[in-house]
Structures are given as C-alpha cells and as structure tokens.
Write a structure and sequence with these properties.
The structure holds 2 protein chains of 2 kinds. Chain A contains no helices and 9 strands. In chain A, the strands form 2 sheets. Chain A has a 5-stranded mixed sheet with strand order 1-9-8-3-4, with no helix packed on it. Chain A is mostly beta strands. Chain A is globular, with a radius of gyration of 14 Å. In chain B, a hairpin with a 3-residue loop joins β4 (31-38) and β5. Chain B is mainly β. Chain B has strands at residues 5-7, 10-13, 19-24, 31-38, 42-50, 53-57, 64-68, 74-78, 87-94, 104-105, 109-113. Chain B contains no helices and 11 strands. Classes of the chains: A mainly beta, B mainly beta. At the A-B interface, β4 and β8 of A face β4, β5, β9 and β10 of B.
Chain lengths: 113, 114
C-alpha cells in the first residue's frame, strides 16, 4: 500500500484558503486518494475522494497532478469550526483488503480568529 | 437517515475484566469495521465484518474479537483488559467495504482501563 506523507500541523486564519498537500510517491495505478476530517473525540468524516485531475464538492476541492505522486486538499475560506485533523489516505479500488482504511498521522489544522 | 451509533459512549473497567462494545451501522450498510485510536498509535484497524463473516483483520492479539449479526449490527469484545487497551474505539459502516467506499464513522466508545 502506498505510504502517505503530510505536514504534521498547519495554522491559518478565518476567511483564508487552506491547502494541505499529501505526498504519495509510490501510488499504484488503481489507487484512489481520499481525505477524512476528524474533530476531537469524534469519528473521522469523509471529505472528498479522487483519482486524477480535480474534484470539487460543497466543502472542498482536491487537486491531483498528472503523475499522481501528490495531492492537495483545498479548503476555501476556513472558519474556526474547520479546526481539526485532516487525513490523506491512498487505497486501491476493489482490493481484497476490505474495510481497512490506513490512517497516517494526519495534519492538525488550527484556524485562528 | 440515522447515522452510525455506538453504545456505550463511555466505559470504565479494571484490568483483567472483559468488555463488549456495540455498533449499529447505517441502514442498508453491510460492512462494519472497527478501529482503535490512541494518542500514541493513532487510528489502527482492528477487523471488518460483512454479512456476518470476518473478512479482514488487523494486527491485534486474540483478546480482541468481534461478531456481526444478521441485521448487520456488530459487537466487539476485549477480554482480559490491560491498561494499554484504554482508547477510543470507533466503528464505521459502508455499503460494501470496498476500499473506495465511503466509511461512515460512529462517535466512538471511550474505554478507560484502571
């Protein structure tokens, strides 16, 4: 399984755009990239998933360059409530390794007023 | 649609005891996964059940076991509790358990072993 590397922590201010980059140099052809968000003492929550180029939903955008060796989660105009840990996961579609998400250390985002 | 529910939310046990945690998945979801989260080790996969069968298992000792019922509800049991078992135990459900399925997590059970 592809190993992911992301910054341990990031600071931002309310209203700013935040970009969190995840490195996954040995990503495989059938791997998808997924981001989860976790607040203290709660379970992680799915944010976005993509395979290549750009994916956008109502809360975030995911940018994946052509070589797919990295990906960037973009959070537009963050608020204090976006303070959380963000996890980047890489996993193959249709794998026999069912139901298993491999979480790294994640990026702790602190949004300041 | 109701989310994933876990009971109890908090639990205090002493070393040597055993504990059973319960998880009710989202209606229609047949895959249930369990995770342990500690400050030191982060989120670690315990096991996954689908249609009452354990399909996948993480690297935990045999004291950790689980089962799934015909209605997809799942229970996790830890026997002979150790201090190191203190953690937040999370369950997650998904439609099929495929790695690209969205997993929906419950609020967790906070277990404290004294």
């Amino acid at each position: 399984l592809a190993k992911t590397t992301q910054p341990i922590s990031m600071d931002s201010y309310e209203g700013q755009e935040v970009n969190i980059t995840c490195s996954h140099n040995n990503i495989a052809t059938n791997d998808y990239i997924t981001w989860y968000q976790q607040f203290p003492s709660q379970g992680p929550r799915f944010i976005i998933q993509g395979y290549k180029t750009k994916v956008t939903n109502e809360v975030a955008s995911l940018f994946i360059p052509a070589d797919r060796k990295s990906s960037t989660l973009s959070l537009p105009r963050v608020s204090l409530s976006d303070t959380a840990v963000y996890y980047c996961l890489v996993a193959p579609h249709g794998s026999s390794n069912t139901g298993k998400l491999i979480f790294g250390q994640g990026t702790t985002l602190q949004v300041k007023p | 649609k109701a989310g994933v529910t876990q009971t109890p939310r908090y639990l205090i046990k002493t070393r040597g005891q055993q504990v059973t945690l319960s998880c009710s998945p989202i209606s229609g979801h047949r895959s249930v996964s369990w995770y342990q989260q500690t400050p030191g080790q982060g989120l670690q996969f315990l096991f996954e059940y689908f249609s009452e069968t354990q399909r996948n298992k993480g690297n935990f000792p045999g004291r950790f076991s689980g089962r799934q019922f015909s209605n997809s509800r799942s229970e996790m049991n830890v026997s002979t509790l150790e201090l190191g078992d203190s953690a937040l135990y999370l369950c997650a459900s998904s439609l099929r358990g495929d790695n690209t399925d969205t997993q929906y997590f419950g609020p967790g059970t906070r277990l404290t072993v004294l």
